[in-house]
């Protein structure tokens, strides 16, 4: 039960006489009510108007019969100021909750009694106690209760039973409607006792509401926060234990460097300018001794997707190539969609072929979407990427290294780092710079530790999925 439901239940319980245990004899009650200087006519409603069962010493009445007057607000005063000043210090009150209905200030009041105001328009049924002189406008309903009726009890009652009975199907609440409202009324002392108990209980419920809201936010945010923590621990070498028997990452980097030289020699990739050495000032956090910092461009090649225009698009046939765009990419995975576009294979023959272990990421998109990386888990025939997507291909064709890079670059730290690798492209879009991306420094563990990290990450992310389902059920 949420806090609002709890409050409503307590109100219903209290205002049906089930919260207090005071007992009054019927004769004493009648004498108590009729002793007021204001005569109450037609005090009891007929049996068929009673909404629920009440204690024998309570009575059913109508709002008009326990009110000194029920009025409606008029036009806004001519002498009106939005801001409160020494001269304009009387609140002008309209319908609605915002700023307790205060829309400005004037010089002279029209209502001086302590009374209730009820919104007849907008937030229909919103009720407030007014203790200072004011001016009601825009048909705001003003109710002044009789002295033997607690204004606080009446506010609680109307909050509990007025709005639900009004509903949202009527355009406004009027005096003829409100004055006939049935009120379950206990003796004055019991009204005060009910108010005292409700004030105490609602204070407790308000504290519960803060905890409830905190819990809801925690339930919603915890799975995502957990994922960020898992990946951050992983890239700092804190998620699994190091094994001294592992070959250090330096040997893996040497193997990758040798592979890169061979690919250049065979003209599989082009020789590029060497990347600058890493300085101490660039290192963002500590890593284990067996790990190494390296620039991303020394581990991968980065390729732009296929540029095309509408004239290159055609109806899907056997000779067509599917084009993946930013919308196909989610963290860790890609999806095919019904509205994917297709390019004639002759036009797409020089585009990047999506081979196993490639990573793809949006290159031009909103800043929030920068950094999503998907892992290609199999060779995709007749599939390429569009011009607003980058293909990140590990030089060492290895499932472990590719997956490690995917999880690392999807971490909170590197999602932010990738955003720093962007240039503004138009009002709403950012362009992920290949030059900046190649210069990004990343931590690399030994290959065997990468395997342990991947197993641990994937088992924890599976747990996160279950937690997500629990938090929304």
Report what the structure shows.
This protein has 473 residues and is an alpha+beta fold. 33% of the residues lie in helices and 19% in strands. It contains 10 helices and 23 strands. A 4-stranded antiparallel beta sheet has the order 2-8-5-6, with helices on one face. Strands 11-20-16-18 form a 4-stranded antiparallel beta sheet, covered by helices on one side. A 3-stranded mixed beta sheet has the order 4-3-7, with no helix packed on it. Helix 1 (3-14) runs antiparallel to helix 5 (188-235), helix 5 (188-235) runs antiparallel to helix 10 and helix 7 (399-409) packs across helix 10 (447-471). The model is unreliable at 22-48 (pLDDT under 50).
What distance lies between the first and last C-alpha atoms, to the nearest angstrom? 14 Å
Low-confidence sequence ranges:
22-48
Please tell me how large the radius of gyration is. 36 Å
Q: What is the assembly state of the chains in this entry?
A: single chain
Number of helices: 10
- Give the tally of β-strands: 23
Q: State the share of residues found in helices, binned by percent.
A: 25-40%
What is the strand content? 15-25%
Task: Record the strand order, biggest sheet.
Answer: 2-8-5-6
The main β sheet shows up as:
4 strands, antiparallel
Indicate the overall shape: elongated
Mean pLDDT: 84
Structure in a nutshell:
The protein has ten helices and 23 strands. It has 473 residues and is of the alpha+beta class.
């Amino acid at each position: 039960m949420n806090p609002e439901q709890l409050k409503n239940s307590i109100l219903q319980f209290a205002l049906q006489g089930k919260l207090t245990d005071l007992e009054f004899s019927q004769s004493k009650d009648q004498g108590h009510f009729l002793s007021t200087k204001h005569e109450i006519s037609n005090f009891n409603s007929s049996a068929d108007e009673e909404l629920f069962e009440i204690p024998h010493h309570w009575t059913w009445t109508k709002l008009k019969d326990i009110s000194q007057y029920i009025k409606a607000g008029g036009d806004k005063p001519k002498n009106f100021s939005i801001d409160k000043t020494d001269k304009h210090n009387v609140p002008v009150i309209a319908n609605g909750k915002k700023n307790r209905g205060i829309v400005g200030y004037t010089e002279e009041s029209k209502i001086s009694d302590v009374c209730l105001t009820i919104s007849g328009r907008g937030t229909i049924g919103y009720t407030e106690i007014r203790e200072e002189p004011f001016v009601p406008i825009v048909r705001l309903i003003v109710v002044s209760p009789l002295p033997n009726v607690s204004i606080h009890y009446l506010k609680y009652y109307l909050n509990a039973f007025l709005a639900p009975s009004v509903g949202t199907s009527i355009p406004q609440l009027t005096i003829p409607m409100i004055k006939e409202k049935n009120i379950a009324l206990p003796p004055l002392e019991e009204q005060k006792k009910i108010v005292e108990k409700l004030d105490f209980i609602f204070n407790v419920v308000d504290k519960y509401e803060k905890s409830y809201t905190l819990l809801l936010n925690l339930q919603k945010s915890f799975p995502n926060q957990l994922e960020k923590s898992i990946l951050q621990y992983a890239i700092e070498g804190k998620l699994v234990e190091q094994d001294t028997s592992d070959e250090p990452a330096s040997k893996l980097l040497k193997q990758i460097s040798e592979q890169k030289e061979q690919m250049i020699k065979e003209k599989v990739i082009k020789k590029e300018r060497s990347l600058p050495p890493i300085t101490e000032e660039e290192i963002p956090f500590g890593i284990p001794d067996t790990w190494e910092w390296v620039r991303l461009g020394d581990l991968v090649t980065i390729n732009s997707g296929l540029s095309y225009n509408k004239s290159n698009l055609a109806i899907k046939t056997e000779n067509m190539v599917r084009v993946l765009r930013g919308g196909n990419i989610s963290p860790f995975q890609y999806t095919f969609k019904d509205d994917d576009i297709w390019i004639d294979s002759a036009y797409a023959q020089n585009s990047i072929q999506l081979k196993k272990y490639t990573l793809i990421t949006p290159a031009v998109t909103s800043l929030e979407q920068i950094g999503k990386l998907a892992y290609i888990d199999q060779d995709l025939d007749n599939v390429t990427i569009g011009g607003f997507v980058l293909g990140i291909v590990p030089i060492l064709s290895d499932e472990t290294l590719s997956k490690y890079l995917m999880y690392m670059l999807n971490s909170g730290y590197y999602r932010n780092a990738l955003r720093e690798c962007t240039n503004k492209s138009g009002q709403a879009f950012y362009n992920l710079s290949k030059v900046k991306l190649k210069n990004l420094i990343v931590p690399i563990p030994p290959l065997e530790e990468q395997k342990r990290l991947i197993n641990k990450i994937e088992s924890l992310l599976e747990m996160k999925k279950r937690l997500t389902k629990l938090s929304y059920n």
